[in-house]
Specification:
10 strands, single chain, 10 helices, 60s Ribosomal Protein L30, Chain: A, alpha/beta, 2 domains, 6-stranded parallel β-sheet
């Protein structure tokens, strides 16, 4: 049985203020919960599963975890999803760590004020797909532990390390051999860019792009060219990140 205090706690975690206050965040759905159970990255504080979900999970995976069986109606009551299923987990937010500089053949992504949770979640998923293990976000970037970000990442947040830091300080700490790429509207076409590693790729805000203070550190400005017939104003941050990461991987 879910207590009123537990229901209230779960509901409050949609707000960054209360996630920070309680040191907790929410992960929902079969795919994401199974990813969390398979990862040692996050501590599960509470796990609420329907009876059908319990039948699908090996008992070994649940050893040492506080599991509560709930009904479908109870899940609907605590879920932040439109069509909830399987269950919901409360996870501890890990202690903040310091990002490391890119290694010999590594690409690191930096996000300058990316505000849309769907974009950040998708970018995390893209980094997982293309083997980028580290994202450094500006303090103005949306909180990675927002339920919408976690949901959009489809479990990839378990494998990609996300840090929040002052980007200028991070850029100033880079070795001279690190190339810094950034997506802009009037740069060199992506296919003409000389790609080298170690490197940093910067993706900017959905509406305003990359701030001038950050652009001062950029060694290579990248433009993703549109078709001549296109009337689209721009690509969103996740689309741009996906295209650039594919090109660097290729």
């Amino acid at each position: 049985m879910l207590s009123k205090s537990k229901i209230s706690l779960i509901g409050s975690l949609d707000n960054k203020k209360f996630r920070k206050q309680h040191g907790l965040f929410i992960a929902e759905g079969k795919k994401i919960i199974l990813e969390v159970l398979d990862s040692a990255k996050f501590e599960i504080v509470d796990l609420f599963l329907t009876s059908s979900a319990l039948k699908e999970i090996s008992a070994d995976l649940l050893t040492g975890i506080d599991v509560t069986e709930i009904s479908d109606s109870e899940l609907e009551r605590i879920s932040l999803l439109t069509t909830p299923s399987f269950g919901l987990a409360l996870l501890n937010i890990p202690k903040e760590m310091t990002p490391r500089v890119p290694q010999f053949n590594e690409v690191i992504l930096m996000l300058d004020s990316v505000r849309d949770p769907g974009n950040l979640g998708t970018i995390i998923r893209l980094c997982d797909w293309f083997g980028v293990s580290q994202i450094i976000c500006s303090e103005e970037t949306v909180d990675v532990y927002s339920p919408k970000v976690i949901q959009a990442s489809m479990g990839s947040f378990c494998r990609v390390n996300i840090f929040y830091s002052d980007l200028i300080s991070q850029l100033q700490s880079l070795e001279k051999n690190v190339r810094i790429y950034a997506t802009v509207l009037n740069g060199t076409p992506l296919q003409q860019i000389q790609k080298s590693k170690p490197s940093v790729i910067i993706i900017g805000n959905e509406s305003h792009g990359i701030s001038k203070s950050i652009l001062g550190f950029v060694t290579d400005k990248i433009t993703i060219e549109s078709a001549r017939s296109s009337e689209a104003e721009s690509l969103n941050a996740a689309m741009a990140a996906g295209i650039v990461l594919y090109e660097f991987r290729r």
